[in-house]
Amino acid sequence: MRNLIARLVAFWRGRLIAPAPELPAWAQAGRRRRAHIRRVVGVLEEWAQEMGVSERERQRWIRAAWLHDALRDARLAKGTNHGAAAADRAAKDGESDAGVLDAVRYHSIGYAGWDQVGRMLFLADYLEPGRGRGRKRRAKLLKRVPRDPDRVLQEVVAQQMRERLKSRRPVNPLTLEFWNSVVSR
Is residue 6's pLDDT more than 60? Predict the structure, then answer.
């Protein structure tokens, strides 16, 4: 509702905001996954507005959000990551923004070479309000992002690494490289 009002106010002021894209026709995402994707889009819309990002950058964030889990429920070849598969498919469909494609490709593991769209998608995907465990902690972090995105990003990546270490699961080398880039900013 808030986004609809913002669009109407923008139209009234003479700044028509382009309608957000939706899932591509090739997406394989069930009802629950689609709801998650919509929540990620909503979070990014709110942050973009609060942070005053350009319309071009906002559109990049939204395109990445719609694509990030588009193949999450697909049957993929063993060892194929859903983000990488979605990025490859989006590129075949004409998405040419390397930042958007990198955001989609690495959204679940992190990537040191990301620009703002990758970092914001990573945060929105992790902090979206529909996730179950740690809801109160996530809500506090979610509210802080527009004021302090770099610090919140450090906290989120640290939390994810702690969870992997605690459960004795391996840390992806790209995640470790991402961590190093985040703390050296």
Answer: no
